[in-house]
Amino acid sequence: MSEFNKLSLDAVQEEGFKPLRKTFSEGGNRNNHTSTAPGSFKFKDPLFDYYKYIDYREEIYVNRLREAVAIKSVSAWPDHRQEIFKMLEWTAAWTEKLGGKVQLYENPCKTQQLDDGTTTPLPPIMLGSFGNDPKKKTVCVYGHLDVQPALLTDGWNTEPFELTEIDGKLFGRGSTDDKGPALSWLWMVEAFNELKMDLPVNIKMIYEGMEEYGSEGMFETVNELAKPGKFLSNVDFFCISDNYWLGKNKPCLTYGLRGMSYFEVGVECSTKDLHSGVYGGSVHEAMTDLVKLMSTLVETDGTIKVEGVMKDVAPVTEKEQEIYETIDFDLKNYAEEVGVTTIGEARLRHDNKKDLLMARWRFPTLSLHGIEGAFSDPGAKTVIPRRVLGKFSLRLVPDQDPKQIAECVTKHLNAEFDKLGSPNKMWVKAHHGAKAWLSSTDHPNYTAAAAAVEKVYGLAPDMTREGGSIPIATWLEDATQMNVLLLPVGACDDMAHSQNEKFDRKNMVNAIKVLGCYLFEIAKIKGPKPSECRCEPISMEDMMIPGAFARGFRCKCEI
Questions:
Q1: Residue 8 confidence (pLDDT) above 80
Q2: Tens digit of pLDDT for each residue in 432-463?
Q3: Residues annotated as part of the active site
Q4: What's the average model confidence in pLDDT over 535-539?
Q5: 513-542 burial, b if ≥16 CB within 10 A, otherwise e?
Q6: Which carries the bigger pLDDT value, residue 9 or residue 200?
Q7: Do 170 and 500 form a contact (C-beta atoms < 8 A)?
Q8: What angle do CA 302, 303, 305 make, to 5 degrees?
């Protein structure tokens, strides 16, 4: 790790940073530091020096990200498991240097069994904290420090584990998913320290090293730490920055994620692969049965053909309709981004913004992923495979239960197989499943984040949902009953999980600004700490109590 010397404010000034004591600001945007309207009342933004300090330290943040990217913490590479330990220790050391407390919490699953039957140690979960003032609210941030596999031969234009800047874009595996965003919380704390500013809230951190490979041990850890008196029991708000804006320029907050149910359907026709010229026509072929079965799951227009899947999907409300109308989204740019503009008729399934976004976020989908056991290499091979497995999944929406979906899918495939009259062996296996997650954009956690984004960027964020799944959001909310905020800081073209992953330099800088501003907005929230107040929401009868409305009661314990 590079040496970090804590600077006093005087030392910072000697290096060239000078807090502007007589300049007044309306936000963190570099071009929006002063209010110049004739006759306007000028006021001092308490975070102006903070914004300026971050701008001054920009190059330092890039160099630190370069160090982090160089650590090949790929959770899918068992032979690199020690790199995950190294990345967690690197982050823990920085947390301690900045005055925080750290515990490397033993992973409750201890070891991971590999495909070859051997085992390898699972990395710990890093628990960090800054401040423990019982009068302040507590925000817990989640992040992950492991990354997806990456090789130059995969199609990268630069070495994936060497941070490379091109035109203000920082290319490197983990730059945006999720090392850059996760480490931004530390640099935010550092800035507060250097400027001698008290943190407006207590901060807790829960960082893992296996998110890209199933988060083994995290579900058990969250449920254990949420018990009374333990690490998560006094958390009032959660914040996660592990997703992305809808577009390249306008920030957003995410209030909904789809869940998932993953399946395989298998068919076996023999104990060995067979030559199609010698045996073709004499056996019932497994591949033929499987293709028939998979074709019964979904129409070419995306309509799900499995009975019972759609019965729990809630109708769209008028309020939802209004949210989609104002979202900044360009269909043409999206078509180019997903690569359909040069294929066939070059069209998407929907020709308007609202319907397309609802199809991505608001309704369930069923996708076919592949067939295991079939010949897929270049060239020709005339084989009848003995055993084939079809892989497919459904993305679920609120009110859909993965267990109930598994029952529907299994019943459907069994019925369709019976129709074939095949003597082959068929089975259905439901793999991992996760419920959808939905929050409220009216929750104080979201209004605080929206205010912070607007102050830094100069415009209100879009409120979006996503088609993907982030199970930790549901786990944290279910275990603690506290609100979880998804606060993305990267752009839609950051290419997480893909070749040439990047984090825009300007977004890296603004991320640190937004996080600090968000904490100030959280501190403004009135009322008891949510972790100490377990009241049911105020009812209309409660609001009829004299003075309730005028005094702004939020829950029964304030009456």
A1: no
A2: 788 899 999 999 999 999 999 999 999 999 99
A3: 146, 211
A4: 63
A5: bbbbbbbbbbeebeeebbbeeeeeebeeeb
A6: 200
A7: no
A8: 125
